Amino acid sequence: MIPTREQALELLRKYNKEESHIHHAYAVEATMRHFAELFHEDPDLWGIVGLLHDIDWEQTTTTPERHCHLAPDMLREIGADDSLIHAVQSHGWGICTDVEPSNNLERTLFTIDELTGLIITAGLVRPSKSLADLEVKSVKKKWKDKAFARGVNREIIKQGAEKMNMPLDDVINETILALRPVEKLIGM
Ligand SMILES: [Fe+2]
Ligand SMILES: [Fe+2]
Which ligand is nearest to the CA of 51? Predict the structure, then answer.
C-alpha cells in the first residue's frame, strides 16, 4: 500500500523535529514529483518516496551506518509496502546499504538526494539568495570548488546520472526547475 501524503507527513514529523530535515524532505519530494512528470511516471508515488526517504535520519545521526536500517519498521507503521521500503533503502546504496537502485524511481532518488543540497546552497550564495536566476553553469562552477558545500558527494551524483542515462547538466537543470516553485517551502 502507498501511504497518503498526510500519513507520510505525520510520520515524518513524528521522527524528525529539526526544521532543516523537513525542508530537505520537501526539496526531495518536489524534485521527485518533477522527474516523475518528466518521465511520465506517477508523481504521487515518487513524491511520497521523496518525502519519506530520510525518515530515520534524525534517529541515526550518531550512528550513520544505521541510516536506512531503522526506516523499514517506521514505514510499516503507515502500511508501506516492500517496494516503497526498497526504494527508501536504495538511496543509501554503497553508503549504508547494499540495496542497489533498480528502477527509474530509485535511480532518480539516488541521484538527486545530494544534488538538491548543492543547488540550494548555490542559490543561497547568490545576491538574490534565490534559485530564480540560478543557472546550470554556476552550479557547475560550484561543483568544481571542493570547499563549497563540501558535504555533498559529487561522485554519487555523477554515478547516479550515469545510472539514469541522463547527461549531468540535464539532471542539474531539471532539479533547478523542480526546486524553483518551492523555494519558500524549503526554507530559502
Ligand atoms: Fe539519506
Ligand atoms: Fe536525503
Answer: 2
Give the count of domains, the chain: 1
Q: Coil, strand or helix: which one is 97? A: strand
Mean pLDDT of the chain: 97
DSSP 74-120: HHHTTT--HHHHHHHHHTTBTTTB-----SHHHHHHHHHHHHHHHHH
> Ligand 2 centre and the CA of 136: distance in Å?
21
pLDDT-derived band of residue 26, with 50, 70 and 90 as boundaries?
Answer: very high
Residue 133 lies in a domain: yes
In angstroms, the CA 87 to CA 105 distance is 8
Residue 138, domain CATH? 1.10.3210
pLDDT at res. 183:
97
